[in-house]
Amino acid sequence: MTVELTDLARAIDHTFLKPEGRRADIEQTVAEAAALGTYSVCVSPSALPLALPEGSTLKVTVVCGFPSGKHHSDVKAAEAALAVSQGADEIDMVIDIGAALDGRFDAVEADISAVRAAVPAPTVLKVIIESAALDDDTITAVCRAAESAGADFVKTSTGFHPAGGASVHAVEVMKRAVGDRVAIKASGGIRDRAGAEAMLRAGASRLGISSSRTVLSGGTSQDTY
């Protein structure tokens, strides 16, 4: 499967989440996303509100509980609600990875449910599971907890975890867990077009990429996100 360039661009959340990011970096990211025709721009909560180009269809994605996921559920819920009030269309929340590793999947589901309740539809909720830190059985259980909590997407990675980012294998495991009932976003370490297309073939329908221009132009990036 070869993906048309415009279709590939429309699968991308063009991302800028560097802690040292400045206002000029955010403005450049928004302008680049609009020029490339990506689906959304993904930023940190403090970047809001964004000034989008006039007439733009660009969506705004904001991370929540990022990158550790160790925030209290009430704090995640409040952060997500504030982001939506400031213009976010989509929320990418991080689960408590330790709870997943402990097998406390009820706690994982409750965490996601708290954010879902704070940002009901039509806000899109994506759940970052940090798949590189989990075995296949845990990935499956976490994905099913996200589905039960009403998530719209499960997402592989923050791109900041030392265990690594997205892998084709993880996307395949996630796809088997949720089928077509929940969408999948692959992010973290997608550095070229071949890698991006491999994630889509494995079952992802959205990609988190910070080096979108490089990927779309056929180059190779060294970015981890």
TrEMBL record:
Gene3D superfamilies from the UniProt entry: Aldolase class I
GO annotation terms (biological process): 2-deoxyribose 1-phosphate catabolic process; carbohydrate catabolic process; deoxyribonucleotide catabolic process
EC code(s) of this entry: 4.1.2.4
Domain of life: Bacteria
An example Gene Ontology molecular-function term: deoxyribose-phosphate aldolase activity
Signal peptide: none
The entry's keywords: Cytoplasm, Lyase, Schiff base
Pfam family, one: DeoC
Pathway: Carbohydrate degradation; 2-deoxy-D-ribose 1-phosphate degradation; D-glyceraldehyde 3-phosphate and acetaldehyde from 2-deoxy-alpha-D-ribose 1-phosphate: step 2/2
Enzyme class: lyase
GO cellular component: cytoplasm
Enzymatic reactions: 2-deoxy-D-ribose 5-phosphate = D-glyceraldehyde 3-phosphate + acetaldehyde
Protein family membership: Belongs to the DeoC/FbaB aldolase family. DeoC type 1 subfamily.
UniProt name for this protein: Deoxyribose-phosphate aldolase
UniProt lineage: Bacteria, Bacillati, Actinomycetota, Actinomycetes, Micrococcales
Gene coding for it: deoC
